[in-house]
What does this fold into?
Amino acid sequence: MADRSPRTRLEQLLFARNLSLSDFVRQFSEQADDAGIRAHTSERSAKRWLRGDPGSPRAESRRVLECWFDEPTEELLGPPKAELASHRKSPRSEQELMVNAARESSEHAIESSSAIDPSALEQLHAAAGQAARDYYVTPPLTMLTELLQQRDTIYKQLDRTHKPRQQAELYLLAGQVCGLLSSVSWDLGNADVAEEQARAAYTYGSIIDHPSLRAWARALQVTVALWCRPRRAVAIAEGALEDSPAGTASARLHSVHARALALSGARDEAQSALDAAATELDRAGDDSFLDEVGGELAFDRSRAALCGGAVYVALGDGRRAETEASRAIALFGQMPREQRWGAGALGAQVDLATARTLHGNLAGTQDALVPVFALEPARRTEAITQRLSSLGRMLGQTRYRGAIEAAHIGEDIEDFTAASLARMTARPALPSGN
It folds into this structure.
């Protein structure tokens, strides 16, 4: 490694300490452990640092380097210091320049040919697909831990390969896992983190020009934004629909678009969006990404009916809201338990309760909420909590004051939300996928 002039201050220090590349990678982990920093590197990443490539390393790795060498990362990745460089032999002839150039070309070619075993990719695809399906039946905090481990594994594999096809597959997997992290982050009540993860998923979709991944990521953004910024959610959905693939991707976007429009008070436009979603559902089923993976990536008639019920609740149409919410409950109920989105089914129960409240049937409201209030705290997602909070505000209106049922339901809603996931986790920080 020391047979040529150092390209960076970092490489200069390694030469001075007679450290090989493998020595550096091993000691980097030891230095990270000593400093109490969770960081690692690979030979491929280390080579980028030694070349001084821009955009690397990550923040944790920078801290390790600075603690180790006691110099700012910008200087470490910059040119060698003159006073030390003068002690090293520099190329003195065209012959020596050519030899060095040939060696560097060979090293780069070998590095560029690095690849990972195809079986490792198969395992990553299988794990990410299983996570998408497990999302329906696994508590959010459990999913969070598993997804973070998967994401970090994918990032490590990206550091190991230069094969374009393998990189594309890994970027697709990274986008899929970041999208699932967006859903989980929203379940845990952190809207900002959920949006950031969805944007990361969209970015990965853009890197590999994958329309279905991009559309799904935008739909996740809309789902988060519609609760507090419905007009912004409308704008995101409209932009995404311009190049969304037909079928499942567009059906989901039209459905969440309809919800955002309804919350913005655009009654006719919301109905048109629901009609468009129904048309796209008739064409759904053959998306090689969304439909093949399934689970949280899929969008079927049960989820469309759930969105329809939410649209009519937002529009104050109790009759239609009850019809759509009841249809969603029935469709969810027809699924095997291991394939049923439990949080979605309970969201439909809250919409049914709200629909009954809209036309004064408070006894029916109580009946609809029985399975919701029985939900264990570890599964009380933000979407269910938001729905219940909206119902609680409705019950606080003048027309329901003095009604014993309204008072009891309101108290139950307060108890439920006090033990929701967002309250339990106190909005944990979650690293983004960028």
